[in-house]
Design a protein that fits this description.
The protein contains 11 helices and 11 strands. It is of the alpha/beta class and about 300 residues long. The protein folds into 3 domains: about 80 residues, Winged helix-like DNA-binding domain superfamily/Winged helix DNA-binding domain (Arc Repressor Mutant, subunit A, Orthogonal Bundle), CATH 1.10.10; about 120 residues, Periplasmic binding protein-like II (D-Maltodextrin-Binding Protein, domain 2, 3-Layer(aba) Sandwich), CATH 3.40.190.10; about 100 residues, D-Maltodextrin-Binding Protein, domain 2 (3-Layer(aba) Sandwich). Strands 3, 4, 5, 6, 9, 10 and 11 form a 7-stranded mixed sheet that branches. Strand 7, helix 8 and strand 8 form a beta-alpha-beta unit.
Length: about 300
Amino acid sequence: MFNAQYFRTFITLVETGSFTHTARRLDMTQPGVSQHIRKLEQYLEKPLLNRQGRKFALTETGRRAYEYAVKLFAEHEHFRHSLDNDSLDSGDCRIASPGSVGLMFYPFILGYQQMYPGLTVSYSFAFNHEIVQDVLAGRYDLGIVNDVSRHPELNHDPWHQEPLCLVVPADFTGTTLNDLLGLGFMNYSDGINNASQLLRANFVGEFRSMSHFPLQGYTNEVSMVLDAVARGLGFTVISRLVLETSPWQRQVKEIALPHPVHETLHIVTPRGVDLPRRYVQLLEDFRQHRRHALYGYAEEPGLETLGETPR
């Protein structure tokens, strides 16, 4: 019969290298330790130890049994902690977001995991419609989207806003809408929509439609669009998250505009399901981190209309 305590005794014996030390650590008698090992060998029907007087060496079965037992108890502890929704420093974090968010949010979460080894992180970079389907299917507990598509089984809660940036090649000297027309546009999955919003707000009466701009190319990976801009192939409009994490920051520049436009990010969760506290804390810490980086203080302009982080 399977007995977890026999495996626990075996792990301790391997780690201490001594029946006497094992008995002391587990508050057992030495004959009790020997009995546990014997029972485990009977259960596995294989010898675990090559005994040499008071010393021993692991057999191949013993080595594999030890590796299995360590993994078994690690998974047990992980499972036990994952049931505790009140824990801030343990459990699974299963999150999906667009690349524009994940480029900075995923490393931020990994930093959390380094501080709290009890956390495990599963992160997916995906498009908005894929994120919605993954949350509905239970593959992820939480999704971050920048395009709200209402679904009756999901909550959509506004979370954070990031400025949109007009980005051009570093040597570009133009300032007018006609200059941008001459340069052409580098598109990505959300490019047309983001560019339309920013240009419409800042070139009132001049901007009509993105269809008037020569399309210089397209990539479905937002992190790569600045490579094309850096090569002088066109301009684009991206979230500041993308600009700040790009390896091409020095080869491009942002054109300052008088009227800021923000991309609103929403949290998507299953309706009727309370988020574990570790998610709430993580989301709030990242939001405060970004607010401080962008504005130097906790309150972000224009966010008074946004809801709080979902509980």
